[in-house]
Write a structure and sequence with these properties.
The protein has about 280 residues and is α/β, with parallel strands linked by helices. It has a single domain, classed as 3-Layer(aba) Sandwich (Rossmann fold), CATH 3.40.50. It is built from 13 helices and 8 strands. It has an 8-stranded mixed sheet with strand order 3-4-2-5-1-6-7-8, sandwiched between helices. The longest helix is centred in the C-terminal third of the chain and has 17 residues, at about 185-200.
Length: about 280
């Protein structure tokens, strides 16, 4: 785990010479490296997509060219941002390098923010990853083609533990973990921390925060207090369980875009300020 304020410099393996994606890696990189932020949790229904969409919007609004990649076959982020793919491109073509990610990005309608949409074919992502050499490095390799176009890549990840989720952890600079304050969520966070420690990813910045918080429940008070002692990296911002936030999926737009002065928008602005500060 990375202590707050510590520099994040990640050494990433390069192998599999002769792969079509390897040619992409040879392209000159821009002065500022691509930052990869993954929003992930083993559990579903914890606010991952809401977090990814709102933070992607705020990142783009801060002047950073941003790409939101929807990796969930349920395609919730694609739905919220009204993404309609120009053409169907299977994960198999992406993983093999037959298609490059920048050519598939769609404008979101918001300045500096593009979308890589998902669909049900993403449910086979793991299968196609497993057929490649160095399967845990594929997502990292695929992201290299984005360096000339974006400063930030935000991944909205599917729930569960899979080969794709291991790719995400290997590729990401920062992992943002929304947690509902329950005992099982805290157990999951401990398991994630142990897995990262076993892999030796000491430079991976893990930023958990509490989501869907209902402060009227005494058990949540207890869990949050205990977790802040055990996990000092927990972000201070808590996202409440508000219907105002749930309505985002009805509006199909980021909250700071359609209600910039609302209390819900202020919550996500505070969350983004913390994340951006930790990312440096």
């Amino acid at each position: 785990m990375v202590l707050p304020g510590a520099p994040v410099v990640r050494c990433r393996p390069v192998s599999d010479i002769g792969d079509p994606i390897e040619a992409i890696a040879a392209a000159p990189a821009p002065a500022a490296p691509l930052k990869i932020l993954a929003v992930t949790n083993i559990k579903g229904g914890v606010g991952k997509t809401t977090t990814a969409v709102n933070l992607a919007y705020l990142c783009a609004a801060s002047g950073r060219p941003t790409l939101l990649w929807d990796l969930d076959p349920q395609a919730a982020a694609t739905y919220v941002l009204k993404g309609e793919p120009r053409e169907h491109v299977s994960p198999k073509k992406l993983i093999s390098g037959k298609r490059e990610l920048p050519e598939l990005a769609l404008p979101s309608g918001y300045p500096n923010l593009d979308l890589l949409p998902s669909d049900l074919s993403y449910r086979h992502f793991d299968v196609h990853l497993s057929e490649r050499k160095h399967p845990t490095e594929r997502l990292l390799r695929m992201s290299r083609s984005l360096r000339q176009h974006y400063s930030t890549l935000i991944l909205d990840c599917a729930p569960g533990i899979s080969l794709l989720s291991e790719n995400v952890l290997r590729a990401a600079d920062v992992v943002l973990v929304p947690l509902v304050p329950t005992p099982l969520s805290m157990r999951m966070l401990q398991q994630l921390r142990e897995f990262i420690d076993r892999e030796g990813w000491t430079d991976l910045l893990v930023l958990p925060f509490f989501s869907m918080v209902d402060r009227r429940r005494s058990l949540q008070h207890e869990i949050i207090a205990a977790a802040r002692v055990e996990f000092p990296a927990l972000l201070a911002t808590e996202v409440p369980y508000w219907s105002e936030i749930e309505r985002m999926t009805l509006r199909r737009a980021p909250i700071p875009a359609y209600a910039p002065s609302s209390a819900a928008a202020a919550i996500y602005q505070a969350l983004w300020a913390e994340v951006a500060g930790r990312m440096g």
